# Entry
Amino acid sequence: MNRSDIHARREKVAYYLVKGVPEGRIAELLEVNRMTIARDIAYIRGAAGSWLDDLAKDGFIHEYKLALAKIRDHEFELQNLFKEARSVEQKTRILEALNETVRLYLEMLGETPTVHAYKRALKKLQEGKGDVQAA
# Structure
């Protein structure tokens, strides 16, 4: 199994975790050993590091996680449609939709933590716990 296969499997594991699918069921769905899934989960948690913990402590919005899960659902649906598409025109439209889905997903990942950090800093300033630097 190469790195891209492992990466793809870990993305699927993360997707199922967000949906609340138990570890054993994920192993069944992906047709791999449960220990492989356990290692993947450990890797995913390690890669996320303290970033998610910090966001959760500071009120990470549940709707944000749901929105990301919906985008991933849409991406998997489009991938399945692409596999079934017969014409070049259908495949082209599906690829365009996939590109838009990926753009939206990356935009959310990139902007939301920044907005969250800004709001957290603003709250600290309003509480008198920070200094405002002149620009």
About this structure: The chain has a mean pLDDT of 80. The helical segments are 3-18, 23-30, 34-57, 62-84, 88-126. The longest helix spans residues 88-126. DSSP finds five helices and no strands in the chain.
